[in-house]
Design goal:
10-stranded mixed β-sheet; 34% helix; TIM Barrel; binds iron/sulfur cluster; alpha/beta
């Protein structure tokens, strides 16, 4: 899969409309880890960030070639993450290049003094479409402990206000862990005051610095999903889950119940709580989600691809199974033809209860969490309370077959952890 050298011939253009996306052909969202350098020391950092940049990071030229290749997919959302992207002196040039060739550029900086009003204004002028800031607690104590930096809470609020005043669309990313569960409602109240476009609620995957004991249980996931759905009805911003596609299952279940009770006239919407994009409602200026993406949902390697600071290609930042490197492989070809990515896009290849679940096409469970817990990216999502009807029947058949063979007749333990 040798990469093709392509230089862009695209002209500056108006903000793109996101076209219909066939996830077998193109991702909806590409995330590039610009660097692992960061001045924070977050407790659950995926990137296990460090203070200094790696000499092997993609250069400015490498990054521009990467963006040109991403543009060959169409117009995916392209998010610069880290580490802290503000550690790169070429950040404004990179955003300018991506916006100029027609990519919709997002950025997730760390809340440090590097994020100045001047640099934010330069990024806005370069064509930045969305700025996302992490806030993991509704007060300085919770947030600063989580982020390992006193003053980070206040800095986050200041950055969001500055960005808003500059006319940038803003997003807050919040991580749900066992220790922050109790602050969820207060966090919802805080984000409601921040004038954001999107609240992205990330459910911890035990990888990087995150430990399995930090992950909330399946029952707690479920409670938060229902709370998110309740909030979404009146919120002035969109709410989505990250690394928890089973929120989509809860949305559908709730809407079916509402319809049965006569509280809803429209059929259930195939909403997606994918990975990092706007839902087409709320106060933000983000693009509406096309029906295809809404119906299928975005998941690891399925409408989504991640490129590391060294150029390695992964299904997501939380699923550390490399499928190539943008320096030597063609990203477009890898996305379309990698056997792993093809498997992740096929709901019928899922194992356990996810493989027979009636929601597998819109959900499919977090492939990253399945891998982190079981070592198999196609195994059942371990933190889902739902028991599919077919799985129930299979369990019952298994019981009667074992009984006929003189077994114990006990039902096999379902793969639900922490509930
Ligand atoms: S069983 Fe799997 S596919 Fe079904 S809702 Fe749960 S996580 Fe999603």
């Amino acid at each position: 899969m040798m990469r093709h050298q392509t230089e862009s011939t695209h002209r500056p253009s108006a903000p793109p409309r996101i076209p219909e996306v066939d996830f077998d052909q193109a991702p909806f969202l590409v995330i590039w880890e610009t660097t692992q350098a960061c001045d924070l020391a977050c407790v659950h950092c995926r990137a296990e960030a460090r203070p200094c940049r790696d000499l092997g990071e993609l250069s400015t030229l490498d990054a521009m070639r990467l963006m040109n290749d991403v543009r060959r997919f169409g117009r995916p959302l392209f998010v610069l993450t880290g580490g802290d992207p503000f550690k790169r002196p070429d950040l404004v040039d990179l955003v300018e290049h991506g916006a100029r060739i027609g990519l919709r550029m997002g950025l997730t900086p760390s809340a440090t003094p590097l994020v100045t009003a001047e640099r934010l204004a330069a990024l806005r002028d370069a064509g930045l479409a969305r700025l996302a800031i992490s806030m993991d607690g509704p007060d300085p104590e919770t947030h600063d402990t989580f982020r390992g930096m006193p003053g980070s809470f206040q800095r986050s609020l200041e950055i969001l206000e500055t960005a808003r005043n500059l006319g940038l669309s803003t997003q807050v990313n919040t991580t749900v862990t066992r220790s922050t569960l109790d602050t969820f409602d207060a966090m919802a109240e805080l984000v409601a005051e921040l004038g954001i476009s999107l609240w992205s609620v990330f459910f911890l995957v035990p990888t990087g610095r995150a430990k399995a004991e930090d992950v909330a249980g399946a029952e707690e996931f479920e409670k938060v999903f229902h709370r998110m759905y309740d909030l979404s009805k009146d919120a002035s911003f969109d709410i989505k889950s990250t690394a928890a596609p089973h929120y989509r299952r809860v949305i559908l279940q709730r809407q079916v119940q509402e319809r049965k009770r006569g509280e809803r006239s429209a059929p259930p919407e195939p909403l997606t709580g994918g990975v990092g994009f706007h839902m087409g409602r709320g106060s933000g200026a983000g693009p509406a989600i096309p029906a295809t993406a809404r119906a299928k949902g975005v998941n690891d390697g399925n409408g989504f691809v991640f490129v590391s600071h060294l150029g390695d290609i992964y299904p997501s930042g939380f699923l550390p199974l490399g499928v190539g490197n943008v320096r030597s492989d063609d990203l477009v070809e890898v996305y379309r033809e990698s056997p792993l990515l093809q498997a992740l896009r096929d709901p019928d290849r899922l194992k356990g209860k996810c493989g027979v679940c009636e929601y597998r096409a819109v959900c499919g469970g977090s492939r990253a969490r399945a891998y982190a817990v079981t070592g198999d990216p196609l195994e059942a999502e371990p933190y889902c309370t739902h028991i599919p009807t077919r799985w129930k029947h299979m369990q019952a058949e298994g019981v009667s077959r074992r009984s006929e063979r003189g077994g114990t007749g006990k039902t096999q333990r379902l793969p639900v952890l922490g509930g």
